[in-house]
């Protein structure tokens, strides 16, 4: 059952987060069409809101706010711009930099949903008397037979975004609307719907990558904030193979850009196995050494009722990754996870999201991993 009630049931006061893209515009239009009292809001998150989209990949420019305003005018709803740039910098950008500096690999989109869209924005919306926040995410909120609200995957798995919403708790789910989540359709059809509605964003390119790194150069962005710090690239035995200009510029599982002059004895590619900020060392080795059989994760957040202490689930480890079967056990606030089959490219700082069928059980931040071979 979708959570966009028809007007005769209950007319909600809805705050629609409008990024300036096609998905959020269509979501706002659908909420208004369902009979809700909708107000559009664009979040000004950029430290330089005067910047334009030329060469940019995000959704935080002044052009985006104007696109959102034009869409709101077409839909016929009030529209405002809220400045959350300071909160975004503290909770998302600064956290992103600090995590990389500590040798971890964060997901800023997940943190933005947790701290900005469904914390700062939702809290302000409720204080102003709104009932719900509406976004263009592809996910579903379903009410079960007992009246509990659950977060589920989108009907169209190809566009499912439930992974980055796995941080939402039951209070936040109680005030969340995702009008696109129960639609089995292609992006071209969403664009066609936008065009039928007269929305100029119908043909606007999607935002992608990290919104606050306009040119997509994550390593350059980090270097500008953390500075260069030369260190060693070593193999699993500790032998020096090369140097780097900052361990923060590498991620677990990385293959390209390692700057190693000495080939492996077997001639096969090397991959990043470990990043140590303590001694500023990057360890590399064969792809087989990336196989992870278990992990621990901290700060679990449950999408609704907390699960039993132990259970069998499927898990997703990255926004566009597949599912893998796991056994999870909660011990003193730490989530211990064992994989049925080894997985690769798992890095501390990433989120693991647990699923029971299509239902999102919750998420936690990966702290440590256990490898099938000697751990790096």
TrEMBL record:
Cross-referenced InterPro entries: MnmA-like (IPR004506), MnmA-like_C (IPR046885), MnmA-like_central (IPR046884), MnmA-like_central_sf (IPR023382), Rossmann-like_a/b/a_fold (IPR014729)
Primary location: cytoplasm
Reactions catalysed, as given in the entry: S-sulfanyl-L-cysteinyl-[protein] + uridine(34) in tRNA + AH2 + ATP = 2-thiouridine(34) in tRNA + L-cysteinyl-[protein] + A + AMP + diphosphate + H(+)
UniProt-recorded name of the protein: tRNA-specific 2-thiouridylase MnmA
GO cellular component, one term: cytoplasm
Annotated site residues (Interaction with tRNA) in this chain: 137, 350
Name of the encoding gene: mnmA
Annotated organism of origin: Streptomyces boluensis
Active site: 112, 211
CDD domains to which the protein is assigned, alphabetical: MnmA_TRMU-like
Function: Catalyzes the 2-thiolation of uridine at the wobble position (U34) of tRNA, leading to the formation of s(2)U34.
EC number: 2.8.1.13
The keyword Amino-acid biosynthesis belongs to this UniProt entry's keyword annotation: no
Gene Ontology MF term list: ATP binding; tRNA binding; tRNA-uridine 2-sulfurtransferase activity
Region of interest (Interaction with tRNA), residue spans: 159-161
Pfam families associated with the record: tRNA_Me_trans (PF03054), tRNA_Me_trans_C (PF20258), tRNA_Me_trans_M (PF20259)
Residues that hold ATP according to the record: 17-24, 43, 136
Family, per entry: Belongs to the MnmA/TRMU family.
Subcellular location: Cytoplasm
Source organism superkingdom: Bacteria
Residues covered by the tRNA-specific 2-thiouridylase MnmA-like central domain: 220-285
Matches recorded under PANTHER family: MITOCHONDRIAL TRNA-SPECIFIC 2-THIOURIDYLASE 1 (PTHR11933:SF5), TRNA 5-METHYLAMINOMETHYL-2-THIOURIDYLATE -METHYLTRANSFERASE (PTHR11933)
The entry's keywords: ATP-binding, Cytoplasm, Disulfide bond, Nucleotide-binding, RNA-binding, Transferase, tRNA processing, tRNA-binding
